[in-house]
Amino acid sequence: NAGVMQNPRHLVRRRGQEARLRCSPMKGHSHVYWYRQLPEEGLKFMVYLQKENIIDESGMPKERFSAEFPKEGPSILRIQQVVRGDSAAYFCASSPRDHLEQYFGPGTRLTVT
Amino acid sequence: AQTVTQSQPEMSVQEAETVTLSCTYDTSENNYYLFWYKQPPSRQMILVIRQEAYKQQNATENRFSVNFQKAAKSFSLKISDSQLGDTAMYFCAFMKGNDYKLSFGAGTTVTVRA
């Protein structure tokens, strides 16, 4: 059973461009969570999704950020018009019904130049 | 909101020795869970150990054990017989019962010296 997959592992974008981060949950997992880790800090919750539904996006900035988890395919975290402050590592986790069992992907390190 | 505090930014330990990482948290909840995650240089987050607040017995996983003091809101991690592969950043995390959001501390970097 493959673990949580994230791609790309590293992404460089210029200010104003769009960043699309992908997360494929573990097989059989229908819950996906996105967390952001700023330099020298712990991870911060951004959004929780189930298939075709955003359950809680309270940790996500209101503008420029969006997330989806379609019926088919990976979950996508999209950042429009990136700014330098968006530079961070973005982690995806997935779980079966039990939220305690969150398995993390290797993260995507976004650098905005 | 829950806050998780890790007061030790860095710790160093000799191989085969023991190191203890501290974590305190602030909550008004009675039902919650506490976690320690390891983040090695590969940056993959790996669950080390989990503690249910309703359990008095401290959790143990091989060389990793916790000291859970509910009244003091303290949750320390002890790494025994440290190995070079234990070198990583360690994060303490909190989750309310019936919730799904993990709240993380700022982390402690542990370096195991040969």
Structure description:
The complex is a heterodimer of chains A (113) and B (114). Chain A is mainly beta and 113 residues long. Chain A is 0% helix and 50% strand. Chain A has no helices and 11 strands. In chain A, the strands form 2 sheets. In chain A, strands 2, 4, 5, 6, 9, 10 and 11 form a 7-stranded mixed beta sheet that branches. Chain A has a 4-stranded antiparallel beta sheet with strand order 1-3-8-7, with no helix packed on it. Chain A is globular and about 40 Å long. Chain B is mostly beta strands and 114 residues long. Helices cover 0% and strands 53% of the residues of chain B. Chain B contains no helices and 12 strands. In chain B, the strands form 3 sheets. In chain B, strands 2, 5, 6, 10, 11 and 12 form a 6-stranded mixed beta sheet that branches. The model of chain B has no long low-confidence stretch (mean pLDDT 94). The interface between A and B is medium-sized, with 25 and 22 residues.
Q: Concise description?
A:
The complex is a heterodimer of chains A (113) and B (114). Chain A has 113 residues and is mainly beta.
Q: Give the C-alpha Rg of chain B.
A: 14 Å
% residues in beta strands of chain B: over 45%
Based on DSSP secondary structure assignment, what is the total number of beta strands of chain B?
A: 12
Overall 3D form of chain B: globular
Mean pLDDT value of chain A: 94
The helicity of chain B comes to: under 10%
The biggest beta sheet of chain A reads: 7 strands, mixed
Biggest sheet of chain B: strands, sense, closure? 6 strands, mixed
Treating each run of at least 4 consecutive H or I residues as one helix, how many helices of chain B?
Answer: 0
The rough form of chain A would be described as globular
Which class of secondary structure composition applies to the elements of chain A? mainly beta
Straight-line distance between termini of chain B: 41 Å
What is the helix/strand order of chain A?
Answer: EEEEEEEEEEE
- The chain-level structural class of chain B is mainly beta
